[in-house]
Design the sequence.
């Protein structure tokens, strides 16, 4: 029934003391879509996102990933099975080049194990060559060739975001969770970033689940857009429909919408 769904959130509830941040919420992300999640402040978006990403365990309900119940799984377990969340390049990686940052991503490289180092040096070399080639492909895809030997710490805000996106391409992600990707990025670079997200979606088949305050970016990238209010999904559809829905305007502004 749900083979078309990468993520299926079923009746999830999460309380913090007296506050019900997510209230019996059900929503899903279709394979091959760029699905957006929006809603007024305090709607429960971040909590829901953190539950999907394995950072928060819900009080009840289930998160199904590719048909498998992953409720309560840790982020690193989800990473292994193809659910990736972009994250800021950590301080210690800022002293490595863009290319090295990408080459660091895949775990389980034989060279990381002592046994592999001593007994299978050929394998280590072959694997490194393969990882380097993949990293160069990713760099090419994102058009970051001119900064591949630049230290990550010296990249612009937008280039760093592209590199973060690139890290998700180093492993076989089935879905990428994008968290406030527009924050701190200027308009031109945001356009670049959006282009790349669209190309990853169209050309490489990535599915995205996007939480974002920038409505222009959501409008450009996402279909469907899911609207949350008071811990629940209140609507889902194309952005144009969402913008024209009086009930949603009321949820955002707390007053009946003026219908022209
Ligand atoms: N760790 C926490 N402890 C206590 N209350 C929390 C915690 N996290 C979230 N909440 C509360 O849960 C509710 C939902 O918060 P959440 O951050 O999920 O909403 P949001 O839609 O992401 O809001 P925003 O757009 O402002 O980030 C809010 O009332 C918030 O104060």
Sequence:
């Amino acid at each position: 029934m749900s083979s078309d769904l990468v993520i299926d959130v079923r009746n999830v509830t999460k309380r913090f003391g007296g506050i019900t941040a997510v209230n019996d919420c059900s929503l899903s992300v279709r394979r091959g879509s760029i699905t957006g999640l929006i809603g007024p402040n305090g709607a429960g978006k971040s909590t829901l996102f953190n539950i999907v990403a394995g950072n928060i365990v819900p009080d009840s309900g289930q998160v199904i990933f590719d048909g498998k119940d992953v409720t309560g799984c840790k982020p690193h377990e989800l990473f292994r099975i193809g659910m990736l969340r972009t994250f800021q390049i950590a301080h210690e990686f800022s002293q490595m080049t863009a290319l090295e940052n990408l080459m660091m991503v895949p775990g389980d490289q034989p060279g990381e194990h002592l046994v592999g180092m001593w007994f299978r040096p050929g394998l280590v070399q072959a694997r490194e060559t393969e990882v380097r080639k993949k990293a160069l492909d990713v760099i090419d895809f994102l058009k970051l060739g001119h900064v591949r030997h630049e230290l990550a710490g010296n990249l612009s805000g937008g280039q760093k975001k592209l590199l973060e996106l690139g890290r998700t391409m180093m492993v076989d992600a089935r879905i990428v969770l994008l968290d406030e990707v527009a924050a701190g990025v200027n308009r031109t670079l945001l356009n670049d970033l959006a282009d790349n997200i669209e190309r990853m979606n169209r050309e490489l088949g990535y599915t995205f689940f996007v939480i974002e305050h920038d409505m222009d970016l959501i409008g450009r990238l996402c279909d469907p857009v899911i609207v949350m209010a008071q811990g629940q999904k209140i609507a889902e559809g194309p952005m144009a429909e969402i913008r024209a829905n009086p009930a949603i305007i009321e949820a955002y502004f707390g007053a009946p919408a003026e219908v022209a």
